[in-house]
Amino acid sequence: MDSETSSDAIGSRWPELIVAAVLMALAVLVIVDSVRAGIGWADDGPRSGYFPFYIGLLLLASSATVLVKALLRWRRADEVFAERAQIGMVLAVLVPMLIYVGGIAVLGIYAASLLLIGYFMRRHGKFGWVSTSAVAVGVPLFFFLVFERWFLVPLPKGPIEHWLGF
């Protein structure tokens, strides 16, 4: 970082390199699996790996471009990626989302969604209890009806749904 950048800022060099490398690895995984599934045309149209293969190629090319550009400007002054306060705001969303993902395995998607929506509405949206409760219950209930009853697509359920007989 240059001398004008404050000490509580994070440079952009390493985040760019790490994200580009992770996306390149993901792109290679998509490409390899697409080739395994088949990327050509069958009698009835494209095989199952056709579109993911080309999406993987685009992802690989774009992330490689970001990686090369970051390496080429390595000796220049590091631009500010984010201030510590901004990273704190990202973590205020990221940590509850990670807890939500883990909560899906324990509570099921509907109960975990109810808790996540309620948390965000109260904590970050400063909504009252009535509107928070209505939305936090209504949204998972709506998706339960749409997916489980209308489309007949089962989503991960927890002990509450099993207790209710679903």
Helix content: 55-70%
Q: Low-confidence stretches at least 5 residues in length (pLDDT < 50)?
A: 1-5
Number of helices: 6
How do the strands of the widest beta sheet line up side by side?
1-4
Q: What's the mean pLDDT score?
A: 91
* Straight-line N-to-C gap: 56 Å
> Would you list the SSEs in sequence order as H and E?
EHEEHEHHHH
Mass-distribution shape:
flat
Calculate Rg over CA atoms: 22 Å
Main sheet? 2 strands, antiparallel
Question: How much strand?
Answer: 5-15%
Number of strands: 4
Structural class: mainly alpha
List descriptors.
disordered N terminus, two-stranded antiparallel sheet, mainly alpha
Description:
The chain has helices at residues 13-37, 50-72, 84-107, 109-123, 129-150, 159-163, and strands at residues 9-11, 41-42, 45-46, 80-83. With 166 residues, the protein is mainly α. Helix content is 69%, strand content 7%. The protein has a two-stranded antiparallel sheet.
List strands and helices in order, with pairings.
Layout: E1 9-11, H1 13-37, E2 41-42, E3 45-46, H2 50-72, E4 80-83, H3 84-107, H4 109-123, H5 129-150, H6 159-163
Antiparallel strand pairs: 1-4, 2-3
Helix pairs in contact: 1-2, 3-4, 4-5
How would you sum up this structure in a few lines?
The protein is about 70% helix and about 5% strand.
